[in-house]
Design a protein that fits this description.
five-stranded antiparallel β-sheet, single chain, Creatine Amidinohydrolase, Arc Repressor Mutant, subunit A, 17 strands, three-stranded antiparallel β-sheet, alpha+beta
């Protein structure tokens, strides 16, 4: 990683920190999730003067939904006072991504659950250093969350970050394992603990509003070609929301749905289903990103 790349990561993190503050103020009881998402998207553009972009659709996952929920066009879901809302935002500059998340609960009924994931993140970051075995991060996260009386979500992980790749190797575990790979110089990583009062396993739901290009290839259907060209021009290989297509591409809902269906069928794009814990259980999330540059660990969101 050269100095210019490191600088882009740091700038993306600074912008993300400011966007998170806007998101926290917006996430109040009885507000529509769609309105919160629009606040975040506008903030990225305004606070960076157009120099940064969203790395993926803002994830606004409620209660047992741990990840991958973003409101669709016309979504009427509102944030209830007892809801647990995970707000996961990514910002990139020229594809270099800062990824961060936090959890809100307007009533503070689930403050202890939120504290479990936040403390796990804090403790994991505190031990991060060049050459640290990745498995030791998972050990620290699991120990912290269990110490608060909850379980880590074992099949969700942190991850590496690469240019225009939001989830790159290696996975950063949230449980103790024997991964002896080490944190390396010149690399970017996201630490991402999830805590739950459920079983500690998430499963795919039926709903998908988030997609990403899997393999660009020639396709016959005109609607599909138009959608794919728009995606590649605007989002490269990064995830996008269906509502972004609706807002940015002049076609009917029917044409858009046909286009996306054909792209999925041809495996040009992939879907990200909502990931859920047991119904009625709660999940909290905390996340920050780091780079290791010239042997020094730099936290991107201050």
């Amino acid at each position: 990683m050269d100095s210019k790349t490191a600088e882009k990561y740091v700038k993306a993190g600074k912008i993300l920190g400011s966007v998170q503050k806007k998101a926290r103020k917006s996430a109040v009881a009885d507000k529509k999730l769609l309105d919160i998402a629009l606040v975040v998207e506008k903030a990225v553009k305004d606070l960076s003067e157009g120099k940064a972009k969203l790395a993926f659709p803002v994830n606004l996952s409620l209660n047992e939904a741990a990840a991958h929920y973003t409101p669709g066009t016309g979504d009427e879901t509102v944030l209830g006072k007892n809801d647990v809302l995970k707000i996961d935002i990514g910002v990139h500059i020229d594809g270099f991504i800062a990824d961060g998340s936090f959890t809100v609960n307007p009533s503070n009924e689930w403050a202890n659950l939120i504290e479990a994931s936040e403390l796990a993140l804090e403790n994991a970051l505190s031990i991060a250093k060049l050459g640290l075995e990745i498995g030791k991060i998972g050990t620290e996260i699991e120990k912290t969350i269990k110490g608060k009386g909850f379980k880590p979500v074992q099949n969700l992980t942190g991850h590496g970050l690469e240019q225009y790749v939001q989830h790159a190797a290696p996975g950063i575990p949230n449980i103790e394992n024997n991964d002896t790979r080490k944190l390396e110089d010149g690399q970017a990583y996201a630490f991402e603990p999830f805590a739950t009062d459920g079983e500690g396993i998430v499963r795919e739901g039926a709903q998908s509003e988030i997609f990403a290009v899997e393999e660009a290839r020639l396709i016959r259907n005109n609607h599909a070609r138009n959608v794919l060209e728009f995606i590649l021009e605007n989002y490269n290989t990064l995830p996008f929301a269906e509502r972004w297509i609706a807002d940015g591409l002049k076609m009917s809902e029917f044409q858009r749905k046909i286009g996306l269906r054909e792209l999925l069928k041809a495996k040009c794009i992939k879907a990200f289903p909502v990931l859920k814990e047991e119904q009625g259980k709660m999940v909290s999330q905390a996340e920050n990103s780091i780079i290791i540059h010239e042997g020094k660990v730099i936290k991107l969101i201050k």
